[in-house]
Amino acid sequence: MPNKTQSAVNFEDRNMSQHKLDTLYLMRLLVCIVRFGSFARAAEHLGITPSKASKDLRYLEQSLSTVLLNRTTRRLQLTDAGELTYRQADQMLALHEQLLDGLQNRRECLSGELRITAPMLWGEVMLTPLLLKFRQQHPSVRLVTDFSNRTSDLLRDNIHVAFRSTELNREPYLARFIAKDEMVLCASKAYMSDKSTLCRPEELHQHSLITRCTDYSRHERWTLMDKGKELHMDVAGELAFSHKQAIYAAMQQGFGIAILPRYLVADELLAGTVVEVLPDFSPKGASFYALYTQRRAESALVTHFIDFVIAEMAARPAFDAA
Fold it and tell me: What positions belong to coiled-coil segments (predicted)?
């Protein structure tokens, strides 16, 4: 006689075997066999072999402890239990299709309110066109957006999505990668036209620099990457501004070399009116993430919106979303 351990194992094996095949698949198999009146035609429709169709139907009958089909050489005939199971299976499949249609309609007809925050410059340049496109596709969604460089508390401020250039170990929220926040050391073609090509970072001190000021200081520490290693340089700008837009304007007009987001100067780099300086020593960048909390009521809308932003960013060659 088998011992208790063997009996327990056999019970577990039988219990596990009942979950090997998907219930919806088995219901669809039964419905197809009945409608086609043939194992072979049903199997062809489902993309399986006739032998698998026959084996899986036997599995269904065993799991229900009843015979569903009487098989003869000429025809298949439903038993009474098979007739009941067939009708219930047909209804189950119809309900499943309705569920899928409902979810699809929900995705296509999103509604509700999204409260979003993003850094000012990135939000204005990169995110605004996407918000307008998203609104065109989903006119029932209300978008309330704050472009600000302050760090918001998503729960306290009741924000659904916060876009940040950040390091994840500093964030207590759920996060989705959006794109690289790549920086570029650049100058206008006009500024560089009568200058020799720079070869080493130390040569930057011989040039007019445009820095970002903090507390009215023109001094800034630039971090350049030298074959994966960080190279720190303390620089002082001939011009210093607290906002990147002002730095961008000064660089465009030929006042010197600056560090700016690549997305901001991508068109000028492509056109050749702005040139990259020291391309082998690119400034250290970061990554943009969409930060959010798990809220049951708005989760579908938030997920769809973030998916949309990721897809749109990936389609923009100027902003690497690898």
Answer: 86-113
Query: Which residues, 6 or more positions from 302, have their beta carbon under 8 angstroms from its beta carbon?
Result: 114, 160, 161, 292, 295
**Do 267 and 318 form a contact (C-beta atoms < 8 A)?**
yes
- Decide: residue 250, CB within 10 A, 0-12 exposed, 13-18 middle, 19+ buried: buried
**293 backbone dihedrals φ, ψ, rounded to 5°:** -110, 160
Gap between the Cα atoms of 6 and 14, Å rounded: 12
- The beta strand positions in the chain, using DSSP E, are 69-71, 76-78, 112-118, 141-147, 161-166, 174-181, 183-188, 209-212, 219-226, 229-236, 239-241, 257-261, 274-276, 286-292
Length of the chain equals 322
Cβ atoms of 256 and 250 closer than 8 Å: yes
Q: Three-class SS of residue 296? A: coil
Flag whether the pTM goes above 0.70: no
* Biggest CA-to-CA distance, the chain: 97
Which segments of the chain have a pLDDT < 70? 1-21, 73, 101-108, 169-170, 295-298, 317-322
Residues 6+ apart with CB under 8 A from 128: none
The 3-state DSSP class for residue 67 equals coil
Q: What whole-number distance in Å separates Cα of residue 262 and Cα of residue 182?
A: 6
